[in-house]
Amino acid sequence: MKKSWHLNRRMVLKSAGVALALPWFESMGAAATKQEPETPKRLCCVMFPYGVALPKDDSPDRDWGWFPRGEGSDYQLTNVLKPLEPLMEETSIFGGLSHAHCRTMNGHDTGDTFLTGNHLASITYRNTVSLDQYAAETIGQQTRIPSLTLSTDGGVGPRTRSTTLSYTSKGRPIPALSNPKLIFQRLFGQDNASQLDRRRMENSASILDLVLEQSRSLRSNLGLPDRRKLDEYETSVRDVEQRVERSKRWLDTPLPEVNSDELQLDANTDGPKEYIRAVYDLMFLSFQTDLTRLATYQIGSYGPTLARTFPACIGLPGNWHGLAHGAAKKGGAEQIGKFDQFLAENLAYFLTRLKTTEEADGNMLDRTCVLYGCSNSRTHQNRNYPLLLSGGNKLGLTHNQYLKFKESTPMSNLFVSILNALDVPCDQFADSTGPLAGL
Amino acid sequence: MNNFLVMHSLKLTIIVSSLCLFVGNLVADDLVLKQYREKVQPVVKQLCFKCHQGEKAKGDFRMDTLNPDMVAGEDQEAWHDALNRFNQGEMPPAKAKQATTKQRELLTAWISRSLEAASHAKRYTDGRVVTRRLTRQQYQNTMEDLLGVQLDFSRYLPPDPASPDGFLNNGLTLEMSPVQLETMLQSARAGLQEAIVSGSKPKIYQTSATKTAVGKMPQLKVAGVTQVAPEFILDIKQFPREGQFEIHIQAGAVVPAGEDFPRLQLWLGCLPGIVHVPRKLVGEVNVTATVDQPQEFVFTGRMEDFPQSGDQPFGNVAFKGMMGLLEFVDADGKQLRHADKTYAVPPSKKKPKPKSEPKKADTDKNEKPSASPEKDRLDIIVSSISFQSPVFSTWPPASHQGILFERDPAVKDVEYAREVIARFMRRAYRRMPLTGEIENAVLLFEKIQKSPVSFEEAMRETLASMLISPHFLYLVETRTADAADSAISNFELASRLSYFLWNTMPDETLMQLAEAGKLKDKTIIEQQVQRMLADPRSVQFAESLADQWFDLDALNRVAVNPEFYPDFDNRLKLDMQEETRQFMLEILQSDSSCLQMIESDWTMLNRPLAKFYGITGPRTTEFERVALPTNLRRGGLLGQASFLLSNSDGQSSHPIKRAVWILDRLLDTPPAPPPPDVPELNPEIPDLAGLSLKQQLVIHREKEACYNCHKGIDPWGIPLEHFNAIGQWEATSVTTGVPVSKKKPRATVAVDSSTMLPDDTKTDGATELKQYLLEHRRTQFARSVVTHVATYALGRSLDYGDDVHVERLTEKFIESDYRLSSLLVALAQSELFQTK
Q: Cβ contacts (< 8 Å) between A106 and chain B: which residues?
């Protein structure tokens, strides 16, 4: 029997064509929360590869450069970020920031470190925790799914050309999901309420215990590098055990009902616009239903990626990498600039959905931080990342500005500011020297 | 000339000595350090020390304290940085004394080779990984074979990463994560649910027809909705929501003389409303039989994979259940339409009626569809179609009986369970199970049975535990007490062979030979390899090897620019990939020379690709061997569009990418990756547009930072310049991709495919290049084949310790006239394959 206040509060939100029941506070479940829960704070990080056009101020191509003209509150957007104009009250753009450790790395290696700030010498490959997973230690515990990792290509990809932005506290890559249908399935597909599933969940604990024991006794018969492989396995088993535990707590909470009719779940990389939007829609829905509060999304990758063909699909010549390389050629800034504008339009679509959805005393964007950018300025250059941060106006962040920094300011300072805004305790992240001034 | 020799010998010694690092301790070889002290350091001193020495070094960068031992030391990145600045001409600064060409070559060669050695050494510091996780494909195949059901087990698994040498089955790069493990537990349960049944035989739904159903389809013009007008509709009113289905179609074709065979497409979908028809392709076949003697085609799939109608039909739509939709297309893929024929979808009333009076068509309804096919026009005649789901030839199904074998009623539950567990475990773990392992599983079974579940459900859950066990998910090769004994066991050998040549678990024959301890016998191995290659499962070997070795996936990463190639159909990329796969399969199955990978007088083509190449012959989309008697342009891998297109940039040919592919994949001497912050071709140089790519490359090479590497790379790609970006032959001129003016968007230049290879051999064109490779690089190519095949076979990168085996195998391979099957037998018999 459901309590009556459950029913009273049940409502159907209809926004941008997606109907769904259950706003976040109900999907939290009555059992999981005794006191009135606070409004969720969220983080979404999006990265694209290869860099942008950086024409000089006096260049005729200046309007296809990524960065605005001017500085501080007196700035003018170029064509590229024009789609964000209506969202500038909620947005800050940053110039000059980069991860100091990563400046000497190969230009194509820095996708792996966009959210970690770690020096990834190609001979060791060791990475460290990413921003979203750092936040997941605190924020991730409050939702059914701790965090969502997405990318165009899926999986982890080859090291130094990875297809994921998220790294565990041990620095291991977290495989990304890529297919909208599968993401939907993972988010809204499994309802563990049936009797069979309930019993199987009980069995899972015993099954996982058994295989963990098998792995442990296998260790003694293996060499050192093989044991490291078993470490991965055992960590995974333990993690799944915890998930099972967590799922049990959610057993009596129904999954939010989401109508998938208006979602373009069949979108694939042949239609970049539909595809990118579908992924943004899914992130939006997972936030709105409070299935998770953390998401990363890597559009393309620095390595072999399906996204290389994206510009051609919207009528631009050549592949993405080639366009980025040609940014300094005659007419090149306009080509890559048009594609960067296309990416910005899609970001604006996502931000607008957040902004136009009411939540608590304002809208969803008020407490959602969206970090967006690239770890190259012009292609292969690991400095002066094109970066912007949207949202979080009710988390104490100041916006509507273009802040320029000297190279001595680590980009990880921005991470510290974001974590602080989200109430995640953090004194230092990677090489940070404090919060970012002016935000 | 003298200069070149010095350079070359220096490189050689460094390469040789750096290789030693793989097995030695983590200290650079003495020779490398000696070279530093005697040759390199004096140059560094002269060029850099003036500023970068002592406490007050400029930029806080000291060259005098840098540790030249890049393997043991900590200064690799500082060296790397120095190399980059030097290469880019940033250092020494313009005002300071510059390096001579000789010094430049010495420095860049020494630093980059040392860095490479360091990176290799680090990678192998801890020895080899021998325990490898099943790849996504191996997992899929193994689950299918083990459970006897065909489900998409790997659908929810993330793709596997490629190793540095391009292979997907490398134990070191194959990782495990919670997402994967969780997914595999779900897949295990789904598979066992399907394999082990409870209760009585479910209802089987069947429908059949000899002529099309007729009904309206949505005709609204809505953006983003493709209108569906099938030739033939099978109305499937009742159907199960889940399970395997089979659709049988009998059809023949009318093919006028001189025309090629038409194709039949089967789609499955439904009609949820008035706007669109959600549907998915089940399959496409070439119809080559005549109408009098039709062929039978069998299509299979799973109901849950196709769009299904809801429980409540929407309004008054013509089809309330599911629909099998047939479409006929000609050899070029264009829909076949004949104005006077009856179609499944009646014409819209709003439109003016076609001249051929559709009323009359209605009266034709009762006639047999094959009544009077016009003899002179291309058409397909379907004589019958039937649908069935689920599909069971027996009950319980074979998968069930394979696991829960017939039971003696006198045997107690737990005794029977123990036997089921033992038999299943032997297959799942690919070895004899230990008593303790069986007992632990029995304990789990008893624990699960305490809650009120059926015997079958308890069994499913118990067996699921084995399907996420490390013994199942990994190819485990344990160590014996004797550390020096690195030989693998008979069962481990069975798995190695089976995953190598079939990409799936060993079959009963291999298991029994392993159990009898006979598998290591050289004659038996040879017999087994031959048997395995004759088995259809070996197609997986040829395909996976071709895909990964030649990086055929790269086809999907190149976008063909429609401005340059407006007629290019992206579906051709699949045919291009298939050509190369089939080519390798043909070399394997015809047991002929691998030198044909360099040059051959035949290739594998289907109609679309043959047409693309301008070759006549194949009449269907099926691939067949096509002789190239007069013009060898398409001979060997270098003539195949898969290689040519995937190593272009989608608008112009790309000699550098093609060259790197030849060096890396064909000759196994990959050039060093480009340094960070690669400078672009300087756009300031006037009129690049008027230059051929070859000339642009000359300018590129003239930059000293680029010269050192590119002089050894570019010449390999230039002979292929007659092939444009999509792999078509351009006899005289190519577009450069560089805009000249508004009126003339792209410059056209004459093709120039002549070049000087790094050993000063003059070459012009693809045929001469292939000739050169056959004459001068034969052994190197043979070694490369051995290396690539062995890397794939072993699931790890080869290291210095493997060189002696590779040499031995290469000799044998050459002696056997470069036959792939001989190499596979020799490899399977080798110490390399049979040790950890």
A: 673, 675-676
Strands B244-254, B295-302: pairing is antiparallel
**How far apart, in whole angstroms, are the C-alpha atoms of residue B329 and residue B420?**
51
CB B135 within 8 A of CB B160: yes
C-beta atoms of B122 and A210 within 8 A = no
| Residues 6+ positions from A424 with CB-CB distance below 8 Å | A134, A135, A137, A138, A139
Q: CB distance from B825 to chain A under 8 Å?
A: no
Q: Which residues 402-421 on chain A approach chain B with CB closer than 8 angstroms?
A: none
The predicted complex's ipTM stands at: 0.77
Count of the separate structural domains present in chain A: 2
Tell me the CATH number of domain B205-345+376-389, given options 1.20.120, 2.60.120, 3.40.50, 2.60.40: 2.60.120
Chain A stretch 210-229, residues whose beta carbon is closer than 8 A to a beta carbon of chain B: 210-211, 213-215, 218, 221-226, 228-229
Same domain membership, residue A206 and residue A286: no
pLDDT value, residue B301: 94
Interface of A with B in 291-330 (CB under 8 A): 304-306, 308-309, 311-313, 317-319, 322, 325-326, 328-330
Please tell me the distance in Å from A247's CA to the nearest CA on chain B.
12
Residue A128 lies in a domain: yes
**How crowded is residue B447: how many other Cβ atoms within 10 Å of its Cβ?**
16
Q: Are residues A312 and A376 part of one domain?
A: yes
Q: What are the chain B neighbours of A381 within 8 Å (beta carbons)? A: 677
Q: How close is the nearest chain B Cα to the Cα of A196, in Å? A: 9
In chain B, which residues have their Cβ closer than 8 Å to the Cβ of A105?
676
**pLDDT tens across B201-258, in order?**
999 999 999 999 988 888 766 666 677 889 999 999 999 988 999 999 999 999 998 8
Do both A167 and A93 map to the same domain? Answer: yes
Q: Are residues A319 and A398 in the same domain?
A: yes
DSSP A400: S
Interface test with A, best of B22, B557, B742 (most A CBs within 10 A): B557
> Residues near A268 by Cβ (< 8 Å), separated by ≥ 6?
A179, A275
In a domain, A219, yes or no: yes
Structural domain containing residue A232: 192-253
The reply to whether B130 touches chain A by the CB within 8 Å rule is yes
Handedness of CA B159, B164, B170, B173 (dihedral sign): negative
Confidence (pTM): 0.75
Q: Are residues A323 and A417 in the same domain?
A: yes
Nearest CA in chain A to B171: A229
**What amino acid occupies position B257?**
A
Annotated domain spans of chain B: 2-124, 205-345+376-389, 546-776
Of A104, A203, A222, the CB nearest to B479: A222
Same domain, A128 and A143: yes
* Token representation of residue A401: 């500005």
How confident is the model over B178-215, as pLDDT tens digits?
889 999 999 999 999 999 998 889 999 999 999 999 88
A153, A325, A382 ranked by CB distance to B680: nearest: A325
Same domain, A116 and A243: no
Report yes or no on A5 lying in a domain.
no
End-to-end CA distance of chain B: 45
Assess whether A143 and A284 both reside in one domain: yes
The domain boundary residue, chosen from A209, A225, A253: A253
A369, part of any domain: yes
Cβ of A111 under 8 Å from any chain B Cβ? no
Residue whose pair of structure tokens reads 């707590």 in the numeric block: A249
Q: How far is CA B402 from the centre of its chain?
A: 32
Q: What angle do CA B782, B787, B791 make, to 5 degrees?
A: 150
Q: What is the DSSP letter of B631?
A: -
CA dihedral sign of residues A376, A378, A383, A384: negative
Which residues 698-737 of B are in CB contact (within 8 Å) with A? 737
